[in-house]
Automatic annotation (TrEMBL):
UniProt keywords, alphabetically: ATP-binding, Kinase, Nucleotide-binding, Serine/threonine-protein kinase, Transferase
Name this polypeptide is given: Kinase-like protein
GO terms assigned for molecular function: ATP binding; protein serine/threonine kinase activity
Lineage: Eukaryota, Fungi, Dikarya, Basidiomycota, Agaricomycotina
Matches recorded under Pfam families: Alpha_kinase
Location of the Alpha-type protein kinase domain: 1-124
InterPro entries to which the protein is assigned, alphabetical: a-kinase_dom, Alpha-type_PK, Kinase-like_dom_sf
Protein's organism: Calocera cornea HHB12733
Length: 135
């Protein structure tokens, strides 16, 4: 029995220790403030591209309401992702990491890649205006 009254009713979080030596250490693939994946090479670059593609799918499949970001981890284990939601849902629905400006910029910033093309995803960027439309 805990005899210290100061710990009574306290909440603790215990997490698994991640061994960062398995595949070259801890890697940040995508920040929660931008849809542009980090420029990584080799296997880490492919993982980054796939995670960027998964954001595209999530954005489309949720009807433009949400996607997962802040992908990072080590040894094939992703940790501490951030749900980014449309600001119309609620300001801090998933905490302060839910960056409204990043959500609003996502359709213009997301760089479609080979995964997007292979799965038939279409670009979310608006088509460039023609010279007739500009006049």
């Amino acid at each position: 029995k805990d005899k210290k009254k100061t710990r009574s009713g306290s909440t603790y979080l215990v997490e698994e220790m991640i061994e960062d030596v398995a595949k070259g250490g801890f890697v940040k693939y995508l920040h929660n403030s931008s849809a542009i994946p980090r420029m990584l090479s080799g296997e880490e670059g492919r993982i980054s591209a796939f995670l960027s593609f998964s954001q595209h799918v999530q954005f489309v499949r949720t009807g433009g309401l949400a996607y997962i970001s802040d992908y990072q981890g080590a040894g094939g284990l992703l940790t501490d992702p951030q749900v980014i939601t449309n600001p119309c849902l609620q300001v801090e629905l998933f905490g302060s990491g839910n960056v409204a400006a990043a959500f609003e910029a996502f359709p213009q910033e997301h760089p479609c890649n080979d995964f997007c093309k292979a799965f038939g995803m279409t670009s979310m960027r608006p088509a460039p205006r023609t010279s007739q439309e500009r006049s």
